[in-house]
Every structure is written in C-alpha cells, then in structure tokens.
Design a protein that fits this description.
This protein has 553 residues and is mainly alpha-helical. It contains 22 helices and seven strands. Helix 4 packs parallel to helix 7 and helix 8 packs antiparallel against helix 9. The longest helix is centred in the middle third of the chain and has 31 residues. The termini are far apart. The mean pLDDT is 92.
C-alpha cells in the first residue's frame, strides 16, 4: 500500500508565475548570444560550416561534406540551419539566420517541458493532499505552478547554458526528447496531440543523429504506457512502438547509425561525477529530494516519465565516456523531477537556495562589471593587465546598445531580488526564480559586456586573417585531416576552397596547411614552409603554412 502523497500545497502556494515575468526571463535567456559574434570553435563552427556548405551549393544535401570530407550524419538539424540561411538571405547574415532557427528549438524545448510538467502534475497521484480545513490548491493552478517551476529549473541548469545556445545537432535532439516527454505526459488528457507528437519526436530524434537514444526512449516509453492505469495511455503504446520502428527505418535510410560507445576509463571515475555535479546544478539536489520524498510513487507516471528521460540521458553520457552533449538530453527529465521536489521542500532548504543564489549571482555580476570597467578604462589596473595578457592584441570597442542592455538586466535583477523576497514567500516556484534569473543575468552580461574578449578568444577569425596575409582569395588550400572547425573557418570566414581529404597534398592546391604543437613545422617533401601562425589566445597549437615548391608566392 502506498504511503500518503507527500505534497501539501495551499491555494496561495499554487499561484502561477506571472506570464510577463516568465516571458521576460525566457527572453533574457534566449536572445543574448544571437547577435554580434562569430560561430565559435569546435562543434559550433563545424556544424555551421556544414550548413553553409549545403546552402552555398558546395555540398550535397543528402551526403554533405566539409572540405571534401563527409560531415556529420545528423542530416535534419543541418537541413534546418541551411534552410534558415537560404530563407532569410540576404536580409539576415548566415550565422544569425542559423542561430535563429536553433534558438527556436531551445524555445520549443522550454515550451514542451512546461506542457509535459503541467500534464504530469494533473494526474491523480501527483495532486497534493486536501487540507483539513480547506484552502488547498486547485488542480489546474497546482499543475501550472509545477510547470512554471520545471521551466525555471531547466533555465537554471548550468549545463544547458552554452550548449543550448549553439547551432549543433544536439539541440534538435533536446527538443525531440522534450516533445516525447510531452506526448507521454499528455496522453490521459489529449487524444491526437500525443499521438502526433510521438510519431514526430522519435523519427526526428533518429534523423538528428541519436537513433540509439530514440530506440531506448521508445522501448522505455512503451513500457511506461503498458503499466499505466489510464486506458488512453495504454492505447498510446501502439503508437510509441510504431514510431520507434519508423525511427529505426529512418536512421537506416539516412545512415545515422554510428558506433559512439566509449566506456569510461579508470581516470574518468572521478571526472564524470564532478562533471555531473556542476552540469546538472541546481536540479540534481532537488531530484534526489524528489526521489526520496516520492519514493513510494516512483512507478507512477508523474515520476516514471521524467525518470525515463533523465536515465536515458545519464546512461548515454556514461556509454559515451562522459559526453556532455549526451548528458544534455537528460535535462528536461531532471527539470521535471526537480519541480516535484518543491511541494515537499522544507522552508530552510528553500531559504538556503535563495541566499546562495542571491550572493553567488550578485557577486558574479559585480565581477563582470569590474572586468568591463577594466577593459574600457584600464581601472582597476590588475584586471586590465590580466585581460591584456589573456587576449593580446584585442582592441575592445564600445557599444552603447550592449551597455544599455547590461544595465537594464542588472536593474531587473535588483528588482527581482526585492520582488522575490518581499512578495512571493509562499509560491511553489519561489525557490527557482533566483537561480533561473541569476543564470539569465550572467548570460546576458557575458554576451554583452564580455562578448568582445570572449569572441576574440573563441573565434577563428584572427587565424583566418593571418592566413589571408599569405594566401590570395582565389587560391585553393590543402588541409589534409584538418579539424572540421578549421576547415569551416577557412571556407566560411576566409572564402577559400579547401581540400581536407587525406590525399589533399597530392592535389592541385598550391597552399598547404598543417597544425601541431611543435615549435618548428615539419619538413614536407615538395613543399616550402612560408609562415608559422597562431591564434593570439592559443599558446599551444600552431598552424604551418607551406607553398608548393616552385609555385609563385
């Protein structure tokens, strides 16, 4: 026999977060980082380079390449980015066009997480106990308050902050996972929406480069449906299995099956727990509290559905050697579980979260403003010297728009502190307002005040400019086995035709690029070393530029 439901919520506690406040937080989280920067090195730049290759017609949409080398098998997200570039050109610059499409995916993730949490909180086993003298929360109000808390928990999670603002396939996978959670959650209350959602979510997840995760989620979701006491949910099981089969077939047709398993090594046994501690903060302490307080209800749908999502993401991360991008897929489930901790959270724990958030994020904001002052005025002197040392050659510009946005964000944070501590002491979602607002503030200030040095450090533009001093615009560059982000930078930022195939040095290109960590470039038969180049913020990697022996410089 199950123990009594642990949740006790009054009508005042179930007040929804004002829509304007929630929308303002979401805007502060989604919009910064869209404007005024290059695609950043590694995965972000490589994915954008492949999208540009398709949009420019340099690569097939069915078998995309980058520098002549087959690219990522996740076709659907790259199609989305390339289509956005073509659709918005020439009114919108290609990097911004691609980011807008992926910002929409992040917004959909927040929306699907909200809708899934709301429907889960409406189930009978999730509803709070009635109070002895009345005044308990209405079911709809309670469900909406839980949904608001889940969105706040998702925005507050540190691991989503950078990865959620890139143009990489994992963001499409995240939206598909949240859509599947909505389908499983809404099945008792909707007829066709969950069916359409599950038929879309699993095949799109497979086509976005995660067929194995689609398979696991499909089978686990079908089992959750089979065990449900709701006839409508049991009927959804057939649709889940059919969508799983469709996902497998689509993955086979699109060639997205890739072996990415890399079991953790002994040295990772401490690194992975440390990664989870910061990546999943502040959701994981709340999740543990949820599992303890609701331990008699773990197999009920309001916990089983998010548990399936969270466990799949955690397991995928372990199976891929601690991949943070696989771990990101656990976040919608973690956020939903964290929201169900709030009806049972003790007042002292809630106060501790508030005080920690207030001091931590206020301190971070002050630090960012001090760094900005040092960068613009040279005062204080020590931070200014550190910035000059870390970003040699940087000439920071002044943007009134960025300064104004940062000032407004800081004032909004001060207002949020006063509003939260003065008027919202009983609301269910109160413990997550300051963490979510603090993360949004930190992201806003970083993407406005500190964007020049950050973009200078994380972009490949300075390296491309140094290559351009030695290579004409109409020349071809051979870069055998070069990193995808370097190839993308040369093609997108430099406009050169690049051959990155292993045998590129034997081709017709008159310029050869090699990279490594040695102080002196290696001798290459038939080629003459002309320059050793470095990114100004990278002291380890060097790029050596060669010309074919006998060719004109």
């Amino acid at each position: 026999m199950n123990s009594p439901i642990p949740a006790l919520v009054t009508a005042r506690g179930a007040r929804p977060l004002p829509r304007l406040a929630l929308l303002a937080l979401a805007a502060a989280y989604l919009l910064p980082g869209l404007f005024g920067r290059d695609p950043w090195r590694h995965a972000d730049l490589a994915a954008f380079g492949q999208m540009m290759s398709m949009a420019d017609g340099r690569s097939s949409w069915l078998a995309p390449t980058l520098g002549g080398v087959p690219g990522d098998a996740a076709l659907l997200p790259h199609w989305l980015g390339a289509a956005a570039i073509l659709l918005l050109s020439p009114l919108v610059q290609p990097p911004l066009a691609a980011r807008l499409a992926f910002a929409l995916l992040l917004a959909l993730t927040l929306l699907f997480t909200w809708a899934a949490s709301r429907h889960l909180a409406l189930t009978d086993a999730a509803q709070p106990l009635p109070l002895a003298f009345g005044g308990e929360a209405e079911p709809v109000d309670y469900a909406r308050a839980v949904a608001d808390a889940a969105v706040l928990a998702l925005m507050a999670t540190l691991g989503l902050l950078q990865l959620g603002h890139e143009t990489t396939p994992e963001l499409a996978q995240l939206a598909c996972v949240a859509l599947l959670a909505y389908a499983l959650a809404a099945a008792p209350f909707r007829r066709w929406q969950p069916r359409l959602a599950v038929v879309a979510a699993l095949p799109l997840l497979a086509g976005s480069g995660a067929p194995a995760i689609a398979l696991v989620l499909g089978l686990a979701g079908a089992e959750v449906c089979r065990r449900s006491g709701y006839p409508a949910v049991r009927a959804l099981r057939r649709w889940v299995l059919a969508a799983t089969a469709l996902a497998i077939a689509l993955a086979w047709l699109m060639g997205t099956w890739q072996w990415r398993v890399a079991l953790p090594q002994p040295r990772d046994l401490l690194a992975i727990p440390r990664q989870w501690l910061w990546f999943l903060w502040p959701a994981w302490p709340l999740v543990l509290w949820t599992l303890w307080r609701w331990r008699q209800y773990v197999l009920f749908r309001h916990l089983a559905v998010p548990l399936v999502v969270a466990a799949t993401g955690l397991g995928a991360s372990l199976a891929m050697g601690g991949s943070d991008r696989a771990l990101m897929l656990a976040l919608p489930g973690m956020a939903m579980l964290a929201a169900f901790a709030l009806p049972t959270l003790r007042r002292s724990a809630s106060a501790a979260i508030d005080w920690f958030s207030m001091f931590f994020f206020s301190g971070a904001a002050i630090t960012i403003w001090v760094l900005y002052s040092a960068m613009q005025t040279g005062v204080p002197a020590k931070p200014a010297a550190n910035i000059a040392k870390l970003a040699p050659g940087l000439v920071p510009g002044f943007s009134p728009l960025a300064l104004g946005a940062a000032a407004l964000g800081t004032l909004a944070w001060l207002w949020l502190l006063r509003w939260r501590t003065g008027r919202q002491r009983e609301a269910l979602w109160k413990s997550l307002v300051l963490p979510a607002g603090g993360v949004a503030l930190g992201w806003l200030l970083t993407m406005t005040l500190l964007l020049p040095p950050l973009d200078y450090a994380r972009s490949n533009r300075t390296l491309v400019q140094r290559v351009g001093a030695h290579v004409n615009a109409d020349e071809c560059i051979a870069a055998p086995r070069a990193a995808a982000s370097l190839v993308a930078a040369l093609e997108v930022l430099g406009g050169w035709r690049v051959d990155a195939r292993p045998q590129a040095a034997a081709g017709p290109c008159t310029v050869l690029l090699r990279t490594g960590a040695a102080a002196q470039g290696p001798q290459v038969d038939g080629w003459t070393l002309r320059a050793t180049l470095q990114r100004p913020t990278d002291r380890s990697e060097r790029t050596w530029l060669y010309r074919r022996a006998g060719s004109a410089s």
